[in-house]
Amino acid sequence: MKGTQMKEGQDGKKEKANEEVVQLRREIGLLPAACFIIGTVVGSGIFIAPKGVLINSGSVGLSLLVWALCGILSLFGALCYAELGTSFTKSGGHYTYLHETLGPLPAFLRLWVEFLFIRPAVASYVSLAFGRYVVEPFFAPCAAPMALIKLVSILGLTFVVAVNCWSVSMASRIQVTLTFIKMFALVLIIVPGVIALSKGNTENFQNGFEMDSLTLDRLPLAFYNGLYAYGGWFYLNFVTEEVINPNRTIPLAIICSMVTVTVFYVLVNVAYYTMMTPTELLLSDAVAVTFANRALQGLAPAIPILVALSCLGALNGGFFGSPRMLFVGAREGHWPPIFSMIHIRRRTPLPAVLFLYPLVVLMLITGEIYQLINFASFSRWFFIALATLGMLIHRYRFPHHPRPFKVPLAIAVTFTVVCFFIVGLSLYSDPWNTGKSCALTLSGVPVYYVTVHRFRLPHGWRKIFNFCSKKLQILLEVAQQEVQTY
Questions:
Q1: Could you tell me which of 329, 304, 350 has the C-alpha nearest to residue 448?
Q2: What is the CA radius of gyration of the chain?
Q3: What DSSP designation does 367 have?
Q4: pLDDT at position 472, please?
């Protein structure tokens, strides 16, 4: 009897000790993982990009083909990342895979551009879309004041940051809820479109593949717009260490979510064309709202709210995933150690999440977002291409490395070639913005050699830096992980 009581007491102590250990916990199952991908992919893109795809493809039929091909290409990329995510079980996404396959310098440069301009630019863009859809219905048909739009955008951003600082499980639950809301918004668009199509509203699909207005130099721009709407399929790989049974969950979540998004996106665009002519779609600044005014007159006022919530979900997904890249980079010694710490009670990477907040707010206030968005795409696709190329090189060099999920070689090669083609085409079609993006990326090279490769900062600077780090650690109540989670 005594022995049983002692054993129970020891088990209780062990459980208590496990609860008190400072570490990121595995709390993301299959449903939250799939919702995390869908919720991050389906943001403002499907409500903005149809106009860009149509104007650059030149016809209804070709625009629908572009939407389908962009979905297939995104699925190919996501499958490559499923292999990478199960081969290397660290969080951090792009950064981790570049570090493991091509070395520390490419990994550091990816970290550098992500937090210098890619993440703040994307988050600012989505925040502004949220603010615009919340504010503009109250001022229609007049223009809404930009100051109010920016204020509401910052409030939405602050809410997302607060949730991600407070609790991983709360951020995950909010993501699941917002994902179901945004899929409901897409169903609201699809159902009237399918009903109208079944009644014979096919005028806009007749002669759908007219090639009169198609030019080869503009077709890549149609793919850029489509791929922007599918962006975000790689975010689950940023939180690998928090996924339950990642070898099964990551591939399943990626396949289910990307097939779902592709089918929904194509059906949404079909629905648009059943109610709107190509000319009307091109004249509309808010395609979903114009569609709702025709097909869902009673529910039309709800559409801007649903689109705003969709943007909020994409923003939440971005803030849930991206800070993990910074967290892992700091853990590897590529960023100040304070960013590799987590809150001792909340178990969230608090410093990494908070680091992004002032950068996004600053970009929102200054309004230099759209210029940055244009050339952020180059760096994003260049490093994605490098990551999948690194995967192929790693396969060749280490054929016996455990790969629980292995993508077919043809898919990996096709995706890598297409990514490099997209990057090369951007060098040709937009050399100015691409050149600036290259310069910003390469500006990280001297920073790497001064601060990471061999620490060359003066001794006095190091003392100040260490003092500030200690004070921040006490203020934020953060500490290094006590358990290795990979």
A1: 329
A2: 23
A3: T
A4: 82
